[in-house]
Write a structure and sequence with these properties.
This protein is an alpha/beta fold. The chain contains 9 helices and 8 strands.
């Protein structure tokens, strides 16, 4: 199936899942994860209506942002201190912030770029050693740390669930939503966008994430792979 048709199929299925959960499809953003995809295939997705993309390497987001500056680019990979200056000018949103010492570097890069950098705090809800992210109990400390910076804005939380068991994945998604809700009550921020986003769910488990309140799903293989079923 052509890339454009696959994108449209995923987008239509996402809308159906939202409606079945009693949610407005416009409240869930479909992020096309293009990290292993060549530029012509990205163009096919754009032609079909995709305008939000996720990249996990600095060189890739720099290249893609330069090629397609009118599209929305999210950084979803591991944040390295030395590459923050490259990521910030290109990223509408950084999904994977969890090291406190990165905040000052993001602040400086955002100030130099003349922007406020929106970020998500990555949370390792499952506790898997192989996954990055802050432990849930560390999130309040990170939120307090961001208050020192004028060019960093926390928009929400992100997690990656364990693969292979959809029920376990859904529990992780529910736990992230509950953590976000507790933090919003404790902070009582006047900013309506504060902690408004939940980035959770990928090609294998995004339906469960939507059921638990995801506002962003990160889908790559279901859009770009010919082998995904």
């Amino acid at each position: 199936m052509p890339i454009g048709a696959q994108y449209l199929e995923v987008a239509a299925h996402l809308a159906d899942v939202c409606r079945s959960c009693g949610r407005d499809p416009h409240d869930v953003k479909l992020i096309a994860v293009s990290k292993t995809v060549e530029a012509p295939r990205i163009q096919e997705a754009i032609d079909a209506g995709a305008h939000v993309f996720g990249e996990n390497r600095p060189d890739q987001i720099m290249d893609r942002h330069a090629r397609y500056p009118h599209e929305e680019w999210h950084f979803i990979g591991n944040v390295q201190s030395r590459r923050i200056k490259d990521i910030v000018p290109c990223a509408a949103l950084i999904h994977s912030v969890y090291e406190e010492h990165h905040l000052a570097r993001i602040e400086r890069a955002a100030q130099e770029a003349g922007k406020v950098q929106d970020i998500l705090i990555e949370v390792n809800v499952s506790g898997e050693e192989s996954k990055g992210g802050a432990a849930p109990q560390e999130v309040p400390r990170l939120l307090r740390a961001t208050e020192a910076f004028d060019h960093v804005r926390v928009r929400g939380l992100m997690t990656m669930a364990p693969q292979g068991d959809l029920d376990v994945a859904e529990r992780c998604f529910a736990d992230l939503r509950e953590l976000r809700d507790r933090m919003r009550v404790e902070w009582d921020s006047p900013d309506a966008a504060f902690l408004s986003e939940l980035s959770m769910g990928m090609s294998e488990d995004w339906e469960r994430a939507v059921a638990q309140g995801a506002t962003m799903v990160r889908i790559g293989r279901a859009i770009f792979s010919e082998d995904f079923a």
